[in-house]
Sequence to fold (290 residues):
Amino acid sequence: MNRFQTRVRAYSWWRASGREDKLAIVMLNRLAYYARSIPTIARGVANLDALPRSMLGLNPIIRLRGGPQLRVGSLMDVWIAKETILDRDYERVGTSILDGWTILDVGAALGDFAVYVGLAHPTARVIAFEPFTESFARLRENIELNHLKNVTAVPRAISNNGGMISLAKTGSAVQHTITESTLSGHASESLRVPALTLNDALDDHEVNRCDFLKMDCEGAEFEILLNAPVSATDRIDRICLEYHDGFTSQDHTALVRHLENRGYEVTCTPNPVHAHLGFLYARKAIINKL
Fold:
C-alpha cells in the first residue's frame, strides 16, 4: 500500500467514525482538486512558457494538445480553459456532444466552450452569446484563431427582458453579471448592454431545436430559466449550466423543481472547491426513453 492509499483509507475511516470537521474536509477536497489539476495543465498545454505571461497579463496564446489555441488575458482564463476543455466539465456532468447538434452558449466569455465544441464537431452549429465588449472581442479573436466557420458570436446578453440592461463589473471579466445579486451590489462599474430573452434568441437565429444549452452567466441562470416561456424550453433538449447559489434569493433547487415541472430529468454535481457552485444537467425525459 502506498502513502496515498494509506491517507485515503485513514481519511475514509475518519469520516466513517463521525469525527469529521467540515472545514477540514473542504480544505482536503480543495487540495486534492488542485493537486490533480497541475498535471492536467502540464500535459494539456503545449506551450507552458505562456503561463507566466498570462500571470503578467501579457495576453499570450495558449495551445492545447489535441484542441484549440486560445488568446488568454489571465491565469484565470487558463484555468477556465482547463476545466472546460481538458476536464470537459460540461460533458462530464452531462452528456457527450455530437456532430450535427445545435448548441447555444450563454455566457461565452473568451470562447473556451464555443471554440472547443466548434473545433471538435465541425458539423455542429454553435451560437455564442457574450455581452461584455472586451470578452466579446476575445471570443471573436479565438474563433478566428481556430478558423471556425460553424461558430457565431453574438454581442448580446440573455436575460428575462430584452432591450438594454445593466451589466455589473465584478472581479475579472468572466465574473461580470447582469442579475441583481450579492456581487452586483459591490460592482466597480455598471455598463449598459443589449439583451435578448431566451425565446427571442432562439427565434432570431431560427433554432427550432436546441440540442444543448450551455450556461455560465454568474447567477443570471435563475432569472433566465425561471422566466423562460414553455415555447422556449420546449425547443431545448438538454441544459448544462453552472449554478451560483447565494448570488440571488434563489438557489439551484428552485431550478431543479422548475425544470422537472417542464419535463426534464435533472442531476446536480457540486463543485469540488466552492460549496455555492455546481453543475446542473437537465435532459428532456422523453429523450431518455428513446
Confidence is low (pLDDT under 50) at residues 1-15, 181-186. Residues 179 and 189 are 14 Å apart (CA to CA). The radius of gyration is 19 Å.
